[in-house]
Design goal:
This protein has eight helices and no strands. The protein is mainly α and 162 residues long. Helix 6 packs across helix 8. It comes from Enterococcus alishanensis.
């Protein structure tokens, strides 16, 4: 195919790109939708350069594979980031912040949810990893991350109120 034909094909096959993204569960309200859409256009363009005709079922499968491959790469990168974040635990070197934290815990320990208490006890005091906590209490890692997020909200509102 010539370049002009490919450019018109890109315009004509936009419905195909939307269908591939829908089948791959990448929806228009997703923040990555435009990135995936552009990636599909590039993959389509590269595939059209090597083929004389566009075989629609074959092209559909090829584009689905491209999206799934990109999703797997993103998932792997996210897991690597989570693992590196899990290993990073900065100790409190500021005596004033440490005393404020102790005061906060003595006053608010009963007000914390069971999950927040578990997270504090196991992660901060015992130094266990997210996976170890999840295995011990038989909950998912996302549950542990939720406990951490809720605790961070409480700590943030306690330390940063005016």
């Amino acid at each position: 195919m010539e370049r002009a034909e490919i450019e018109t094909a890109l315009k004509n096959y936009q419905g195909l790109f939307h269908k591939v993204l829908h089948v791959s569960r990448v929806y228009p309200f997703s923040p990555d939708y435009e990135d995936y859409f552009q990636q599909l256009q590039l993959a389509f363009f590269q595939r059209c350069l090597t083929q004389e005709e566009v075989n629609l079922p074959e092209m559909f499968r090829y584009l689905c594979w491209q999206v799934r491959d990109h999703q797997r790469k993103n998932l792997r990168q996210q897991k690597i980031k989570e693992r590196s974040y899990d290993r990073y635990q900065e100790p409190i070197n500021n005596p004033e912040a440490e005393s404020q934290l102790k005061l906060f815990l003595t006053i608010n320990w009963p007000k914390l949810s069971r999950g927040e208490q578990i997270f504090l006890k196991e992660r901060w005091l015992a130094g266990r990893s997210i996976q170890e906590i999840a295995d011990q209490y038989q909950v998912s890692r996302s549950t542990i991350f939720y406990w951490r997020k809720q605790l961070a909200k409480r700590l943030g509102s306690y330390f940063y109120e005016d």
